Protein 1
Amino acid sequence: MTGNHKNTSITRRRALAVSGGTVAAGGLAVAGFQSAFADTTDTSADADATASASSTSSECMTLMSSVTEGPYYLDGALVRKDITEGKAGVPLTLRLTVVDATDGCTPVKGAAVEIWHCDAWGYYSGYTTANPGGSAPAESEEGDSADDNTYLRGYQIANANGVVKFETIFPGWYTPRTCHIHVKVHTGGEKEDGTYEGGKVNYTGQLFFADDIAEEIFTLDPYSKHTGSYTTLANDMVYDGGGASSGLLTLKAVHKKDPSKGYKGFLTLGVDPDAENTGAGSGGGGTPPSDAPTGTPPSDAPSDSASPSASASS
C-alpha cells in the first residue's frame, strides 16, 4: 500500500538523536496471542536495557525532541500493562526504557509512561465517530467488549532499570497519518484511583513502525477490512526520517514466518526529568469530532489495576 497525504503547510521538527537509542531485542520464542502476552519475568531483557543505557552514556548528549500529542488525547488513562480490552489485532509487546539524557543516560526509575493509539480500523477510544478515512466498518461493528472511552490507552511505571512493558495490538492507520503510537513520559506524580495524578510531562512523542512490516500486517484480518491509501513514513506529517532518534521502533517477530503471531517492539527514550512539555510539538494528526469526550474515564471502566500486571514492569 502506498499513499501521499503529506501536509506541506506543517513544518516538521527535527528530532535530536540519542545515540544507540534502541534496546537490543532478546525476546523468547513464543507462539499465539496468549503466549505472546505471557506475563513472565524477563530479567535478561531488563539486563539488556541497562547495558544499552550504560554503553551509550558517553554519547548520550541530546534529548529526544517532542512532537505533537495529536487531537485524540484523553486525561485519566488507567495504570495497567494490558491495554487491549479485547480489541482484535496482531499482538504487540512494547518495551520502552526511559533514561535521563542529562545525566549519562541513567535509568529514570518511577517514570510514568503513557501510551495511546488507534485500533485495527483506525478508531481511537473516546473518538469512535471520527472517520479514519478510506473505507472501514463502523467501530461498533467489531463486536468486542472494549469500553469506548478507555481501550488502547494506559500507563506503566518504570522499574529500577527505567523499563516499562505494555501488551497491546499493532495499531491500524487513519488518514492522513502513518501507523503510530503516542507516548508521554511523566515524573513527579503518583498512582491514585487506578490512574496517575500530579507531576509533570517531560516528553511527548510518537512511536513508528517500518513500512514493510506495517503493510504486511494490514493485509491480515481485521486490518484488511480498512481499505484505502496508507501513508508511508516518507510521506507522514510528523515522522522526520531520523530512525530510532525520531521514534522508529526496533521490531522482532514472535514467529518469523507468521506475522499474525505478533511482534515485540523496543525503544529507549532519552528525556530531561527536570523539563516540562506542553504536548504542542510539531505536526498534526487530524481533527476529532466536536462531540468528543474530555476528562477522565468513567468509574466503572475496565482495569487490571488490581492485578500484578498493573504494578511496575518486571
Protein 2
Amino acid sequence: MTAETATTAAPRALARQRRRAAAARFWREYRTHRAGLFGLAALVLFALVALTAPLTVGSDVQSVTDAPGKPLESPSPQFPLGTDQFGRNLLGLVVWGSRVSLLVGLLAAVLSVAIGALIGVTAGHFRGWYATVIMRITDWFLVMPTLVLAIALATVMSRSLGTIILAIGVTTWPTTARLVRAQTLAVESRPYIERAKALGGGHWHIMSRHVVPNVMPLVLAQTTLIISTAILAEATLAFLGLGDPSIVSWGGLLQDAREAGAVSSGDWWYLVPPGIAIAIVALAFTLCGRAVESVLNPRLGVSR
C-alpha cells in the first residue's frame, strides 16, 4: 500500500468507526425506551408476516372463485377469523393485506418526507423571494384538509396503488417542510457555516456537506411518525372505495365489510381483525417515532 493510498484510507476507516460507534450509542439509548421496544417488536412481527405471506397463505387466498368456505362463516377451527362475503379465509386475507398496507405506508411516507425535506432545506438555505413563495404554498397545504386533497387526487386519477401513494405523499409533506426549514435556519446560523462560505463553499457544498447531515436525524424521526399517518390514510381511502378493488388491503377489507352489511348484521369478525391490525401498526410506528425522536433530541423529554 502506497503512502497516498494509506492517507486516503485512514479518514474513511475513521468515518466508518464513528458511524459504528454512533449506531451502537443510538441502540443503547433506544433500548431504554420500553414503549419504543414494544413498537419495534410489533413492527418486526408484522414485517415477517408480510414477507412470508406468499409461503404461509399463498396468493390464491385472494381468489373469489376458489373460496374454501361459505359466505360470512363465523370463526371456527377451520377458519380462525371466519370468512368474508365470498367465503374466503379472513385470516389469510388479513395476512396478505399486510403486504399492501405496509408497502403503501412506507412508500407514501418516503415520498412525503422527501418532498418536505427538499422544500425545507432549500427554503431555509436560499431564503428571499423563493422562501417566501414556497412557504406560502406550504401554508396553503397546511390549512387545507389533507384527507380532502387526497380524496380529490384519488378521484381524478386512475384507481391504483400508485395513485394512493401519490395522493398521500403530495398532501402530507407540509409539516416536514416546516420542521426541516426551522432546523436548516438553526444550522446555517452556526459559525462553521460562515467559515465554509468564506472559504468559497457554494450552495451545493453547504447544503450537502453541512445542512443535510444535521437535519437527517429530524427527517428520520419524522419518517417513522408519518408512516402511521400514511397507513391510516391508505385505509381511509380504501374504505371510501378509492383504492384498487383488485388488491387486498386492510382498508379494502373494511370497505368490503361495509358493502356486505357486516355492521348491521353483527358480523364482527369481518370488521375487527383488519381494524385491529391497522390500529396496532399505526401505534407501533408512533411509539418507534417518539422513541427515535427522544434519542436524537433528549431535550424533548419523551417518557420511557
Protein 3
Amino acid sequence: MTEQQTTDHPAVPENSPSAAGTPQPAAPPVPEGTSAEAVVPGAFAVAGPPPAKKDRRVLRATLRWTAAVAVFAAVGASMAFGITGMDRTDVPGLATESDGRWDFPEIVRPPLPSDRPRPFAEANVAGSHYADLRALVLPAPAAAREDKALHGKDGWLPTEDLLAEYSDTQDRKEFGQRLSDDGLRHIAARGWTTQDGTHTRIYLLQFDSGAVADELRTQLAPYSEPEYPLRGTETSVADEDFSTATRVVGIERFVYTESKPYGAEQVRQAYLAAGDVLALVVQSRKGGANAVPFQQTVVLQSELLD
C-alpha cells in the first residue's frame, strides 16, 4: 500500500506490545451459529454471500434487462439503417424545399490548343480565349427546351439577332455601329426555356483584345442602369441583392433587374467582361424572373469564361 492510500483499521502505536511483536491473546472460540462480528471486538462487518434464492432473482432480472437492451438495440439499428437509406425529403421533419436552382450538366471547360495559355494567364497579355467560343457558352439545364433560333449558322449568330434584344430602333443602329467599329469577330449564343416559363438567352461577343471588350463594356453597362434598354423592359436598375460572394476572379460583372412596376414579364440582365469576350445574360419570366436561377446562370457562365 502506497503513502497516498488510507485504511480504516485503527492505528497501532509504535510502542504498543503488538508493534513490538508481543503475542496477543487468542480470540475466544465462536459458538456455532454466532457471527464473528458478535464476538470479536473491533472486527469489520464483512457481508457474507447472499442466499442462493436471492442470487437466482438477481440473475433472472439481469437476464431480462439484457434481453430488453438487445431488442432495443436491434430496433434502433434497423431504424437508423432505414433513415440513412432514405432521401432527405422522405424523412418527416427533414424535408428541404428546393431553392429554385436548376440541374445543369457537368460543366467542363473545352480543351485549349497546344501551347496556348488560358485567358488570364500572365503570358496572355491580350486576354484572348483560344478555346472555341461556341464551346464556352453555358449548356441548357435538364428538361429545358432549347431555342433553336439562337443556334445561328454553324454555331455563329448574325449580329442583327443580338441587336433584336434591344427595344429602340435608334439604339440598335448605334450599338451595331459600335460593334462594327470595335472589330467584332463573331457571336456565339444559346437560349432555352424551362418548365416554369423562364426564358434564358446568353450571347458571347469576341473581339481582338481584352482592352477593346472592356472599353465597350464601360459604354454599355454603367453602374446605375444599362445604356440600351432591352426589349420588354421599363426601368432596369443595379441589382443590389445579387450576392457579391459569387464573384469569379478576373471577371467584371454588372447586373441589373427590372424594377416594379414591370409589364407582363420581368427581365434580369448581366454584362460580363472576360478578357476579349463580352457576355450578355438575359432572363425573363411572366410574373417575375426568379433571382436564384439567374444568379446560378451568371456564375456558371462566368466560370466557363475564366
